[in-house]
Amino acid sequence: MAVLKGKHIIVAVSGGIAAYKAIEVVSRLRKAGAEVKVIMTQNATRIASPLTFGEISGYPVAVSMWDEIHNWDVEHIALATWADAYIVVPATANVIGKIANGIADDMLTTTIMATEGKKLICPAMNSAMYKNPITQRNLAYLEELGYAIMEPAVGQLACHTEGIGRLPEPEDIVNWLELELYETIDPTRLANKTILVTAGGTQEAIDPVRYIGNRSSGKMGYAIAEQAAMYGAKTILVSAPTSLEVPRNVTYIPVDSAMSMKEVVDEQYPQVDAVIMAAAVADFRVAQVEEHKIKKKETMTLKLVKNPDILAGLGATKKHQVLVGFAAETKNLLEYGFGKVKKKQLDMLVANDVSQSNAGFNVDTNEGYFLYPNGNTKRIPNMTKRELARLIIEEVGNLLEKR
Ligand code: PMT
Description:
alpha/beta; Rossmann fold; 19 strands; binds ligand PMT; flavoprotein; metal ion binding; decarboxylase; EC 4.1.1.36
């Protein structure tokens, strides 16, 4: 979480029942090296104790505009100037409405109005209040003004109903905040580095017109190659067939089968600094590829033989390279994922749950975990593949710096 280190962050807590969860947000931010000051509304102080927030943040909590407990002359301006980022967690419909309409009648709303740093809102409320067109209009307006809005989670709400409106888990909030703060790409961060990315689903020929394939669209791998090039890396994209446009400033090497992908990857491997294998590589190929189109018949049996594991081969011969794999799982994400980290000797693995409709194959979003060989995990909330690609490239940058 290098991006949070040394950052000045205001956590503003409004009077939603999820206010207590903000305590863990503050604690996680501090562990990540951020300096945190907390503002609470009067209502929030009825739900969670300012004393706890003060203890966890290490600073007195600002509640009233008229308290004289701090050193600043005009406290809300001093706080606003201090902040690199201002996050409202949880943000009630009332507070969202006030901010969107320029009402500044307490410490939270006056300070956010004076803040020039990044402003982020985590709405949490009853589903009907969240879906109310007034709330939606206010959120859309704030987004238009450049505020970042986190989508609430779906689940059991304080009012004993199920639906959208839950405050997401503190870990997800902090990861999202981190992502939002990566707003500027440093185009020189990976200069002098070469990154090889694989993408798409391999095609295993049956005869000249048929093949065995999978549902990979290549979107994840192409997004990673795009980000790697934007960060200044010499980027090689080894891609199975897709219908996507090749990103700018990327060396494109088309392949089709697992064997042809392996040949190219192995040849490039000694010269690269990192390999990111987002491709869905077929585990099997047809033993006997027919030279001519197979004629129709009632039944047909195909004999399959095992393909080599490209990534495991790279792990076994690793020298200076950083190796990142993916795991496409439908259950036991962490267990199976860590198994692959070990077996393939990876520096990091992106475990995605491909049974979810908004993650994995052929969609624009993804979610899951980053897994590391020391057993650490980092949860990745649902986000666009481009956002995830940026996180992956930032992590690869961190891993390369530690080399
Ligand atoms: O392309 P999209 O539609 O955007 O979808 C993205 C994705 C779901 C394909 C991607 O996010 C993903 O999960 N890619 C890896 C899919 C996969 O093959 O997972 P696996 O668990 O079977 O393999 C683990 C790792 O070993 C992967 O990095 C894979 O590239 C690699 N592998 C697998 C088999 C093999 N024979 N050789 C390999 O190198």
